[in-house]
Amino acid sequence: MTKTEKQKMLDGELYRPGSPELSADEKANKAWMARYNAVLDRPVAERHVLLSEHFGQVGADCVIRPPFFCDYGYNIRLGDGVFLNFNCVILDIVEVSIGDRTQIGPAVQIYAADHPRDAKTRRDGLEFGRPVKIGSDVWIGGGAIIVPGVTIGDGAVIGAGSVVTRDVGPGQIVAGNPARRIGGGA
Known about the structure:
UDP N-Acetylglucosamine Acyltransferase, domain 1; 5-stranded parallel β-sheet; single chain
């Protein structure tokens, strides 16, 4: 049986993003983002309901301050007490999971979307994704960028403006571009 482009995307394989099924998902997501980003002055409980209807998982007491942007929403999984400040972006073509009590500063960008390294494959319009896993009790400073395939361990700290290109161990503190360990952890 041949996989759909959406099935290929979800499996982290090369896929064509312009398929009718994915285009419909993108259109639905744009409508959801318009609704969500219009509720800035609404109670947190109302925003939580909107998150729960759209994301793959939303734990208790999660807060995402609008504006917020994502590719699909259904690949985002949030633990309990997760907080994302204003203007965050999650490119969730594959799973992006964020553990309990993790705090994410303003304008943080989390990319699970990736592109082939060779020009011909890119020219052919193919792309793929690599999951991003962020543990519990992590703090990510404003303006940080997390690239595809990165895992950040429990209790880690990511300095503001950092570009995280490699896994970060539990309790480690990293900063810079590319982010390098500056403390913490074993």
